[in-house]
Amino acid sequence: MDRLEVQAREAVRSLGRRGRTQRVPTAVRERVVAYARVARARGVSWRRIARTVGLSTSGVQRFAQARASRPQAALVPVVVQAPTPESWHAAAGLTLLTPSGHRLERLSLEDAVALLRALG
Predict the structure, then answer these.
(1) How far from the centroid of its chain's Cα atoms is residue 81's Cα?
(2) Which of 21, 35, 53, 113 sits between 20 and 30 A of 3, alpha carbons compared?
(3) Per DSSP, what are the bridge partners of residue 23?
């Protein structure tokens, strides 16, 4: 047994008896994910990882997936430019959002009026 496996198993055991819907604390999830990442790299199945730590297979997979899909916060450079006449005309127009959820953008006033009359 390696250190990560022991830490993950002990973290889950420290929760004691719990129901299936009881939330697993973040610290425990992180230990399980750390072990799962190493075990998966060694070719261990999700099922075996889950049995080893004492959680459900789907739970361990969800923990690992949530950790992997979490976006990394980063600052990116932004350049603000004055609009050109071409970009202004391309972006100009009305936006119509219908009660049924349809969104129509860049409509001329005449097109918006005609559309509203046709729908009304």
Answers:
(1) 32
(2) 21
(3) none
Q: How far is CA 41 from CA 12, 34, 56, in A?
A: 21, 11, 20
Whose CA is closest to 39, among 80, 96, 1? 1
The Cα–Cα gap between 73 and 53 comes to 30
| CA–CA distance, 118 with 108 (Å, rounded to integer) | 15
Kindly give, in sequence order, each residue whose CB lies less than 8 Å from that of residue 30, ignoring residues fewer than 6 positions away: 67
Which tokens sit at 28?
A: 């425990």
The residues with which 104 forms a beta bridge, in sequence order, are 96
Single out the residue of 54, 16, 22 nearest to residue 35, CA to CA. 54
What are the distances in angstroms from CA 56 to CA 21, 29, 114? Answer: 12, 12, 58
pLDDT digits (tens, 9 = 90+) for 13-54: 998 887 777 888 889 999 999 999 999 999 999 999 999 999
